[in-house]
Amino acid sequence: MRLADFDYNLPPELIAQEPAVSRDGSRLMVVNKALFIEHRRFPEILNYLKKGDVLVSNNTKVIPARLFGRKNKEGALIEVVLLRRLDLRCWEALVRPGKRVKQDTVLYFGKGELTARPLETTPAGGRILEFRYEGVFEELLDRLGQVPLPPYIHNKEVDPRRYQTVYAQHPGSAAAPTAGLHFTPQLLEKVKEHGVEWVEVLLHVGLGTFRPVKTEDITQHRMHEEYYEISDEAADRINLALQEGRRVIAVGTTATRTLESSSVKGRVLSGKGSTDIFIYPGYEFKVISGMLTNFHLPKSTLLMLVSAFATREGILKAYEEAVREKYRFFSFGDAMLLI
Question: How far is CA 157 from CA 18, 153, 180, in A?
């Protein structure tokens, strides 16, 4: 499969620059297994859920992972995006412009209460940074950092709280699991009253999710590892549903990747680990039988993942209709239910 096979035409004005007025105020495209398309509002998702279904969401929390500092205290401006914590002081990060940051460079943030020096370059083109500070790192990050909104969102006045799900619990992500942004506490309550189980897993979203594909042969692309956790209780509830033939529906691509990477012989294993699973057409899903997702960037691994679930032709057809119907795309955009 070629990278060009996953391209589509998207008018720039359809890229959502801000969230809907209310979280559940977005539209919902429903695509069934016969690729029949329906146009709904997001709260109508209840009409497509059955008693006994299990919705599996990712309860990660976006951290203020974007830092702006200066090289050697008063030098050039440097941007750092934290991707993954390695130990108490070291992080894997993206550094821009990276070529300016040599091994002996010291990066200064704020008034110098937080500094960092590069230790090495990663295979993915990032840096390992060792931070120096006094006090609590998370408190410094809250004060000095910014929530890293995607680069295609040019509206910098967006409330960063709208780039968190209402059920976000565990800090560690550089980007939000955006399929869950549509749920309100009230809608979550209605889902549970409907007889649908709500199960949470964890995957800290990093470079693996949003790193662009640069190889024309997509099978040559290598995903970056991302940390995940599945509790014993979550695994037991999902496995019971699978055993009883009930549907397991993933809320988003990160929940999908977490479940599929932890599946062994038809069961989801609990535990902690890292996943670099890359799902593209030809992949046979082992756990999920449905997926809630947003509309993804052309040529992205996320578009390839949903194409694996509903066929490339089916997804591209749905995206063409979404463009015709002027759906809103990407992180703050509308939703799609594949079921």
Answer: 9, 10, 21
- Class of the CATH domain delimited by 66-144: mainly beta
Q: What is the arithmetic mean of pLDDT over 332-338?
A: 98
Would the pTM of this model clear 0.85, i.e. be above it? yes
The whole-number pLDDT of residue 36 equals 96
Q: Residues 142-152: what's their mean pLDDT?
A: 94
In 236-272, which positions are buried (b, 16+ CB within 10 angstroms) versus exposed (e)?
ebbbebbeeebbbbbbbbbbbbbbbbbbeeeebebee
Report CA torsion sign: 267, 47, 25, 300. positive
Superfamily for the 3-62+158-338 domain:
QueA-like (3.40.1780.10)
Handedness of CA 99, 100, 105, 106 (dihedral sign): negative
Which residue spans of the chain are classified as CATH 3.40.1780.10?
3-62+158-338
Residue 211: per-residue pLDDT: 85
In this structure, are residues 124 and 211 in contact, taking their beta carbons and an 8 Å threshold?
yes
Average pLDDT over residues 267-289: 97
Measuring CA to CA, which residue among 169, 338, 171, 152 is closest to residue 251? 338
Q: What DSSP state is assigned to residue 116?
A: E
pLDDT at 103 over 90: no
In angstroms, what is the C-alpha Rg of the chain? 20
Q: In this structure, are residues 258 and 60 in contact, taking their beta carbons and an 8 Å threshold?
A: no
**What residues contact residue 202 under an 8 Å CB cut-off, 6+ apart?**
58, 59, 60, 170, 228, 229, 230, 258
Q: Is the pLDDT of residue 73 over 90?
A: no
221: β partners:
none
pLDDT for the residue numbered 124: 80
